[in-house]
Model the fold of this input.
Amino acid sequence: MATSVKAHIAGTVWKIEIAVGDVVKEGQTLVILESMKMEMPVESPGPGRVTAIRVVPAQPVEEGAVLVELD
Done:
C-alpha cells in the first residue's frame, strides 16, 4: 500500500537522506527540513521502498506538502 510522507511543518528542504529505490525502516530519517534556523527530521512512518521524492534541496514547503512516496 502506498504511503505519502508529508511535511509536519512549513520550512525549507535542507537535506534529502534517501534515494528512489531505497528500502527504509520505520523511524528512519528521510528528509531534513529547516524552519526558524532549526533542523527538523521527517521520519518514515513505517517500513517500505522509496518510489518517489517530490522535493529538492532548498525548496520551500508548506505544512502537509507531500515530500516522499513509499510503497
